[in-house]
């Protein structure tokens, strides 16, 4: 699931010969796990060292990954794996700490907000405690700081602050010499995540301008306004990084473009599946699961993972929002629409992510 | 097979679906814990067997090592491999226990097994001409196949099949009988043969080359022990599988009977074409719970350790619909399998005279 692909070719060969698997070390995992959960080889185990309450519905987990973990760049995210009632779940979270903390103390942090009705985030809040061990994947993601310092504007909404916290910590530690502004939108002033840390950063790192805006402190909601952006000096020259709810990011993006910023200088990362509105008449079709000799027809914008599950299959899967690629599999024919991008695939053979692929006409997948 | 009308079949279907739904609703941590415990048992036995084997020059150690390795292969093939590949644990979302990627410790490739066993055998169970598992195209087990003198020797064939079972299962998809009849060409089987050679070579390399070589001074002992362990597994798993469908009362079906059949009819065929045997907890574990072959055929993708728990309910459904629930002690069921193999090796006339019904008892 959070498979490590660092194994040597020769080891892989021997693994196939002796254990019928590519990752021979994982053959011993069931026993190693009993002895010490931190010795597991299939994924990187990470032990919870501390749990910090940030707000009423947000916690920060301080984790110590096992030695084999390869580290990360500020702004990247990781998949974590937890087991709930016998079922493994993968979810993707941004790392909220700086790479320096990992290098110096071997620690990383994840800042996780309860999603109303969310199985995994609520379980993490209610059941995960110090000393528990979870699975960790390698860091990934292109939401990264420019290599040469340029003026930067961060726009964060709610728990979308997490990757930006990591970036700010890194910039402060490296003494990043260019103006840095953070526009941080929260629901009410009680919902500010990592308030103390942000204030401490602002006071010791003079390049940083902090602007926290509560949208629901008064009766009348106060969303992102043109003047929020206009108050940022030298806006046009800034590299913009956004993370937050889809509504905020769409609003910010259109206003930034109206101010003359080019799309290549606007970087976004999602923390919830963004739904491209699909015309439900043009999607759906007969899906053939060739490996299972099964054919089902689907109407509307159900993705192939949902279609397979409704047909009684259980394909491997992870985040269900197009991030982790656990559910990638071979499409042998047919056209699918990608939910994330709204783009239509070619008709031929290719790998697709089941959880964001909606069939458009007949599709064959190798499941 | 008893005749049931469509309404009765629909009722049978909903009765069995209710049992299935009950298990699905309860499926969770207990099942995950169970299969992980079995995986740990397998790893312990395999590692223990392999570590002890070089010390096999001490006779009791040789026996212990061979037994441990044999048991590990049995558990891996029967309770883990076979069941995982049926998708019994797919819901756990654990890549090591997923039906589509699991590769088991035997010659047959998992891909070939999923095609011949999961699809052909479980869909067309005991349909003569469609279920190639019925007699493995080597044995004549019903009068649907015309007798010829070659069948006189089929007990020898049976012995060979059971001793070399993993190789027999491995080449099953070759469809040698159809190649002989020139219905298919060797060329069409090339991709299969390549895969077979790769997996078979791998299994032989591991047990008969690699482990003997790295323990060079005692190589003959390790080789003998590994051959012994494979033999134990072959004998046991073939016996379990034969007891599942070839017992006296296990029924066979024709292709016409099954054309456009309903799910209820499929259920009925699974119930009447399969047979159980009784025994202790260990017998069930070592047979991968195929001792509950009936339950397995009705619900191939429910975690197998649940079969003993639902057996009573399945029996109740059978009683309600007047369907024979075929079970008996291991010795009795195996006895009827051997009898069947012997009986159908004889020309029909001789067989009928020998096995004609016992004279009616005096009232």
UniProtKB/TrEMBL annotation, chain A:
Its cofactor is [2Fe-2S] cluster. Residues 41-146 form the FAD-binding FR-type domain. Pfam families: FAD_binding_6, Fer2, NAD_binding_1. GO terms for molecular function: iron-sulfur cluster binding; oxidoreductase activity. This is Flavodoxin reductases (Ferredoxin-NADPH reductases) family 1. It comes from the Bacteria. Signal peptide: none annotated.
Automatic annotation (TrEMBL), chain B:
This is Linoleoyl-CoA desaturase. One of its GO terms (cellular component) is membrane. The keyword Chloroplast does not apply. Pfam families: FA_desaturase (PF00487). One of its GO terms (molecular function) is oxidoreductase activity, acting on paired donors, with oxidation of a pair of donors resulting in the reduction of molecular oxygen to two molecules of water. It comes from the Bacteria. InterPro entries: FA_desaturase_dom, Fatty_acid_desaturase. Keywords: Membrane, Transmembrane, Transmembrane helix. The keyword Transmembrane helix applies. GO terms for biological process: lipid metabolic process. Residues 61-327 form the Fatty acid desaturase domain. The chain crosses the membrane at residues 51-75, 155-174, 208-229.
């Amino acid at each position: 699931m959070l498979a490590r692909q660092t194994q040597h070719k020769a080891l892989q060969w021997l693994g196939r010969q002796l254990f019928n698997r590519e990752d021979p070390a994982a053959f011993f995992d069931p026993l190693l796990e009993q002895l010490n959960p931190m010795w597991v080889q299939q994924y990187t185990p990470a032990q919870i060292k501390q749990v910090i309450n940030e707000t009423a519905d947000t916690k920060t987990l301080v984790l110590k990954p096992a030695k084999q973990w390869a580290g990360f760049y500020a702004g990247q995210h990781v998949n974590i794996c937890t087991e709930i009632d016998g079922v493994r779940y993968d979810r993707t979270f941004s790392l909220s700490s700086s790479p320096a903390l990992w290098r110096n103390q071997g620690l990383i942090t994840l800042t996780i907000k309860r999603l109303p009705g969310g199985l995994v985030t609520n379980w993490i809040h209610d059941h995960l405690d110090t000393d528990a061990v979870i699975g960790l994947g390698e860091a990934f993601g292109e939401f990264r700081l420019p290599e040469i310092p340029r003026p930067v504007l961060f726009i964060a909404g709610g728990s979308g602050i997490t990757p930006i916290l990591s970036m700010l910590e890194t910039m402060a530690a490296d003494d990043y010499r260019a103006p840095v502004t953070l526009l941080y939108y929260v629901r009410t002033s009680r919902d500010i995540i990592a308030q103390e840390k942000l204030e401490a950063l602002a006071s010791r790192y003079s390049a940083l301008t902090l602007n926290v805006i509560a949208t629901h402190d008064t009766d009348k909601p106060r969303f992102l306004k043109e003047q929020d952006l206009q108050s940022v000096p030298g806006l046009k020259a800034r590299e913009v990084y956004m993370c937050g709810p889809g509504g905020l990011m769409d609003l910010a993006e259109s206003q930034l473009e109206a101010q003359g910023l080019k799309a290549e200088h606007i970087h976004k990362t999602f923390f919830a599946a963004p739904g491209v509105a699909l015309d439900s008449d043009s999607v759906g079709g007969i899906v053939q699961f060739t490996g299972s000799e099964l054919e089902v027809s689907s109407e509307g914008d159900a993705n192939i993972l949902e279609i397979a599950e409704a047909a009684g299959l259980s394909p491997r899967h992870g985040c269900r929002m197009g991030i982790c690629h656990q559910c990638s599999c071979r499409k042998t024919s047919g056209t699918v629409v990608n939910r994330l991008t709204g783009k239509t695939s070619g008709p031929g053979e290719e790998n697709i992510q089941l959880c964001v692929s909606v069939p458009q006409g007949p599709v064959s997948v190798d499941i | 097979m008893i005749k049931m009308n469509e309404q009765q079949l629909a009722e049978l279907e909903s009765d069995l679906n209710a049992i299935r739904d009950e298990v699905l609703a309860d499926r969770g941590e207990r099942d995950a814990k169970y299969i992980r415990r079995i995986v740990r048992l397998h790893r312990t036995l395999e590692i223990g067997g392999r570590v002890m084997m070089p010390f096999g020059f001490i006779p009791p150690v040789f026996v212990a090592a061979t037994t441990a390795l044999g048991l590990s292969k049995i558990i891996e093939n029967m309770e883990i491999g076979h069941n995982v590949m049926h998708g019994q644990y797919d819901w756990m979302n654990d890549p090591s226990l997923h039906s589509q990627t699991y590769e088991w410790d035997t010659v047959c490739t998992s891909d070939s097994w999923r095609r011949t066993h999961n699809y052909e055998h479980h869909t067309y169970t005991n349909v003569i001409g469609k279920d190639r598992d019925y007699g493995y195209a080597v044995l004549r087990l019903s009068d649907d196949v015309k007798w010829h003198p070659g069948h006189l020797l089929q007990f020898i064939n049976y012995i060979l099949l059971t001793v070399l079972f993993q190789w027999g299962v491995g080449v099953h998809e070759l469809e040698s009988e159809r190649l002989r009849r020139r219905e298919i060409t060797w060329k069409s089987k090339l991709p299969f043969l390549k895969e077979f050679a790769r997996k078979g070579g791998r299994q032989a390399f591991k047990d008969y080359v690699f482990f003997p070589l790295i323990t060079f001074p005692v190589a003959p002992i390790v080789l003998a022990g590994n051959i012994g362990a494979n033999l134990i597994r072959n004998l046991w798993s073939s016996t379990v599988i034969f007891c599942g469908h070839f017992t006296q009362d296990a029924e066979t079906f024709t292709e016409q009977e099954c054309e456009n059949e309903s799910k209820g009819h499929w259920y009925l065929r699974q119930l009447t074409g399969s047979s159980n045997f009784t025994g202790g907890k260990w017998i069930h574990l070592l047979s991968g719970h195929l001792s509950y072959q009936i339950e397995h055929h009705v619900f191939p993708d429910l975690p197998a350790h649940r079969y003993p728990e639902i057996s009573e309910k399945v029996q109740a459904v059978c009683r309600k619909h007047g369907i024979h629930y075929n079970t008996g002690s291991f010795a009795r069921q195996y006895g009827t399998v051997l009898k069947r193999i012997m009986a159908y090796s004889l020309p029909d006339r001789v067989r009928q005279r020998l096995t004609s019904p016992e004279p009616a008892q005096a009232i």
